[in-house]
Amino acid sequence: MAYSTKRRFMAGAVCPRCSKMDSIVVYNLDGKDFRECVSCDFKEEMRLNIAASELETRVNHNQQHPDDVQVINIISPDNKD
User: Fold this and answer.
1) Mind listing the pLDDT tens digit for each residue in 33-57?
2) C-alpha distances in angstroms, 43 versus 17, 23, 25?
3) What confidence tens digit (pLDDT) does each residue in 6-26 have?
4) DSSP labels, 1-30
5) CB under 8 Å to 39, separation ≥6 — which residues?
C-alpha cells in the first residue's frame, strides 16, 4: 500500500516508543512507506506483506478424501398385488 508523499496523521495510532496516541504520521518517500512520531524521534520504514492467503477452514476446504465417499444403494420395493 503506497501512501501519499504528503504526511498524514493516523487516527488512533499509538507510538511504540513514547506510547502517545494520535502522534503518528505516515508518508511515502522514494517509493518506501514510513511512519514517524511527531512527539519523539521514532521513525520506521513499513514493510507490508500484501500477498496473504486465506486460512484454510472446514468451510473453504475443497479437497475430497477417498475415505469420505460412501456408496448408497437405492432399493425399490417389489410391487406385489
Assistant:
1) 999 999 999 999 988 766 667 788 8
2) 10, 12, 10
3) 999 999 999 999 999 999 999
4) -PPPSS-EE-TT-B-TTT--BT-EEEEEET
5) 15, 18, 20, 23
